[in-house]
Write a structure and sequence with these properties.
alpha+beta, TATA-Binding Protein, nine-stranded antiparallel sheet, 9 helices, 21% helix, 40% strand
Length: 442
């Protein structure tokens, strides 16, 4: 073969290789995930923490029965600390018996009342009980009792069913736990006297004396609505934003054509709505709490201390209430509640929450609210139009007011009396001149 023929063959081969490489470069499709992939966008943290069911269920009232007197913690934050410690105490196996419908408090006894009916299957999540959840009774409880066996230095814990037909009994054998609780009860250190109404049927306890409380002014930090869009919509890139169609809102409106997110004008609260079929199964408290808490955990949405407030089992609806310094926080416009409705474990139907976080203190002021004695006297007087049987709870809490002078937003937390009346909470306002409550309130 001639040398010129070889050079021609090599040249043709190089040209062909070049053409193949060029074609491959033009048609190459990289397999990298794009930076705006929805799975990455949906990983959202809005500045809060993660929680568990055991940290979200707290008694609304703890009553120390000492002979004929009733006592509770002066500072509600101490009540939370006490219950958190109780959760770590080792409890033995339980036994189920018939309940005594005519039960009366013993001379030494601790009673705990919860804001909701709790299924027995959840007590292994709340307390240190080594028990197979499959063996748990199917009924629920909303209060528990701890009594003292002075001979064996043991504590007997009783969970009565809400229909008062059955009860579960557990024993705490640790003598140190016994001595700690007995000392708390008999010394009454840090406790204050509790008054009670509806004592025969559904007793409602509230403190007789109130120490001087603090009015707080606090700056706030806002959570961007766009962050919630990324957390709540499966494909944030196709979500459109506009002015809310609600003329009373004037805020922002987001939709992907199916789901919608409404934010109020000040960017303080949001409501997410995801249309669903009308037929759906009820989830039960254990599953509903697990599902709702995990969903909020997924975007670090517990931006304040929140505790379980209420459940509507027919709607799969659950409400958590904001707390500050151990006190519940109330607001006329539900700016202090996290509310969710589910249609199945994987289908969030509605989600409402605040979009602000409490930040730095701007100042405090000591205030003195009227005593529980004054409230008690009024409720039992002819001046009151309240039906005592319609009152299910009375508490001291904070009334949150939102201020935005020149957009320098801040909130005030004002201590006040609140009552749950006919299944809704209202503020009890007092006439400062006459020293009696003003009916109506918030």
């Amino acid at each position: 073969m001639k040398f010129e023929t070889v050079k021609t063959f090599i040249l043709i081969l190089l040209i062909g290789t070049s053409l193949l490489l060029t074609f491959a470069l033009w048609t190459y499709q990289p397999n990298d995930t794009p930076l705006n992939n929805d799975e990455l966008v949906n990983e959202v943290h809005i500045g809060g923490t993660e929680e568990r069911r055991s940290t979200m269920i707290l008694p609304s009232t703890i009553v120390f029965h000492y002979y004929d007197g009733n006592y509770g913690f002066e500072d509600p934050s101490f009540q939370h600390e006490f219950f958190n410690e109780l959760q770590s105490w080792e409890m033995g196996s339980f036994e189920v018996d018939e309940a005594n419908p005519d039960r009366t408090p013993e001379e030494y006894e601790v009673e705990m009342l919860f804001p909701e009916d709790i299924p027995m299957e959840m007590i292994t999540r709340i307390f240190s009980i080594e028990e197979d959840s499959e063996d748990m009774p199917s009924w629920s409880f909303n209060r528990m009792y701890i009594t003292f066996d002075q001979n064996s230095l043991e504590l007997a814990v009783t969970f009565p069913s809400i229909d008062e037909r059955s009860e579960a009994n557990v024993v705490i054998t640790n003598s140190e736990n016994y001595n700690e609780l007995f000392s708390q009860l008999t010394s009454r250190d840090g406790l204050t006297e509790l008054l009670v109404i509806n004592e025969e049927e559904n007793p409602v306890y509230f403190p007789s004396d109130i120490d001087i409380l603090t009015r707080h002014s606090l700056s706030v930090l806002h959570t961007s609505a766009d962050m919630l869009v990324n957390a709540l919509f499966p494909s944030p890139s196709i979500v459109n934003r506009s002015v809310s169609p609600n003329i009373n809102s004037g805020g922002s409106y987001f939709t992907d054509g199916v789901r919608e997110l409404n934010v109020d004008q000040g960017g303080n609260t949001m409501e997410f709505f995801n249309p669903a079929a009308s037929d759906y199964p009820t989830m039960g408290m254990a599953r509903l709490m697990r599902t709702s808490i995990q969903h909020v955990n997924d975007h670090m949405g517990w931006t304040e201390e929140y505790n379980l407030l209420d459940m509507d089992r027919a709607l799969n609806k659950i409400t958590y209430q904001m707390y500050y310094d151990g006190y519940p926080v109330f607001n006329n416009f539900q700016m202090t509640d996290i509310v969710q409705e589910w249609r199945s474990q994987n289908f969030l139907y509605r989600y409402e929450r605040p979009l602000f976080r409490l930040n730095n203190s701007l100042g405090t002021e000591e205030l003195e609210i009227l005593s529980g004695e004054a409230l008690y006297d009024f409720l039992l007087s002819d001046k009151s139009d309240y039906n005592l049987e319609s009152i299910t709870e009375i508490r001291v809490g904070y009334d949150l007011t939102y201020h935005d002078p020149d957009l320098n937003d801040y909130v005030t937390l004002e201590p006040a009396w609140f009552m749950e009346y006919n299944d809704s909470w209202k503020k009890i306002q007092f006439d400062s001149n006459e020293g009696s409550p003003i009916q109506g309130g918030n």
